Amino acid sequence: MKKIILFIFISALLVSCNKTTTDKKFKVISDGAKGSHVNLYTSSNDGMKMYLEKKFKKDMLSKYNIELDVKNMSYEAVKETLDLYSKEGVVDGDIDLLVLNRDEFEDMLSNDYFYKDINKDMSNYNEYINALDKDFSMTKDFKDRVIAIPFYRKQLVFLYDDDILETAPKDIDGFLEFVKENKNKFTFPNPLKNRNGMRFVEYVIFNKLNKEDLDSLRVETDKEKIKLLLKPAMDYLKELDDYILKNDDRYYDTIEDINKLFKESEIYFNFTNEFSEVLDDKEERYPFNTKTFMMGKTGVETYYLLVPNTARNKGGAFVLINDLIGHTVQAEMVKDLRLKILPILDINLLDSEKKSHFKYNDKFVPINEFIKNREFEFSVSTRDSIKGVFEEMLEEKKKELEEKDEEKEKVENNNG
């Protein structure tokens, strides 16, 4: 017993020492960055950009005397710029800090553009981040060095109108039964043309495949093996297809089409990966008493912070990242409904007082439900493979229906 107590005491002491050392190193970095200027580039022009260039910019100037400029640049232009910097050996490039979504980050992984061990001396990374999360594991290079810091997440959530339905389905099979009993009261946009439509297909995959097959799907490249792995999900979607609302026998093209149908009570369910727009619904896209619900695992889209090797002000960028992933800023961003995000930090690492800052309106699924039901989105290449199999399933179904119609016509002709 004494040995166990001694071990716990030594472990706690080591954690405390490591935290103190990291805090001291970070203070040296933040002191050195005072009075400097940081250029942050993002390809988006949404609420997050507005938050960064107003509230966060003001706070960083007050707290660290760091001047922040938030600039728009398309992903293609960013990639071209970093490639040019790399080829010309630039050491004082204009891009100090980047915000990239998962697809963009994945596309750049093969290039040696970014600073390694970016997390090493960040106190908030060590205090609030669960490095075992899947979207953290993909931030390492082949030498296990962290080259990106996850910034925030967006996760698919389902919607229903509380004025029409008393309760919502609890799982994917219960959902299918509900849709079968209420034909034409659900639909989703064409997955071959619309990312939101594809997110619904991914939801089905996450909940119809077992963990082993899901893990295999993420790395499999053989077309026939992928098709075999996806069979339970495609069988589900094939059955569901008979009961969903369509536009002249075709899928609707956009999520705006679906929002309109939901608003007018033509369908009973909807979904979004920007959950807080249910409250911040200035455009009145949804019915007034719309509520969110979960029915199994849904996809998480992660956004990342990266510092190029060629950045002029790496120290200033590190200081900003450390604040952006800290408890105070993450809670502030979650409360700002315009941002429509979920936090990147691990809620379970917070004390009860800090956890209380992450409670949502009762229209929202509790944050722990999001965490419990999250599954990280597929890579671009895997999504392309899924699209191919989904398209094949639709073609096979179309052929089956045509054959049935031909058979029916033959029978009618013979009887005639």
Could you write a compact summary of the structure shown?
With 416 residues, the chain is α/β, with parallel strands linked by helices. The chain contains 17 helices and 9 strands.
Domain module count: 2
The proportion of strand residues reads 5-15%
| N- to C-terminal distance | 91 Å
CATH topology of the largest domain: D-Maltodextrin-Binding Protein, domain 2
- Give the C-level CATH assignment of the largest domain: Alpha Beta
State the helix count. Answer: 17
Shape: globular
Summarize the amount of helix as a percent range: 40-55%
Largest sheet: 6 strands, mixed
What does this entry look like structurally?
The chain is α/β, with parallel strands linked by helices. It has 2 domains: 19-152 and 303-375, 3-Layer(aba) Sandwich (D-Maltodextrin-Binding Protein, domain 2), CATH 3.40.190; 166-267 and 381-400, no CATH class. 50% of the residues lie in helices and 12% in strands. The protein is built from 17 helices and 9 strands. The protein has helices at residues 2-33, 47-64, 75-88, 102-108, 123-128, 134-137, 172-181, 195-208, 211-219, 223-229, 231-240, 255-263, 314-324, 327-335, 352-355, 367-372, 380-415; strands at 37-42, 67-72, 97-101, 149-155, 157-161, 269-272, 290-293, 298-306, 374-376. Strands 1, 2, 3, 4, 8 and 9 form a 6-stranded mixed β-sheet that branches. It has a 3-stranded antiparallel β-sheet with strand order 6-5-7, covered by helices on one side. β1 (37-42), α2 and β2 form a beta-alpha-beta unit. The longest helix is centred in the C-terminal third of the chain and has 36 residues, at 380-415. It is globular and about 90 Å long. The protein starts with a helix and ends with a helix. The relative contact order is 0.16.
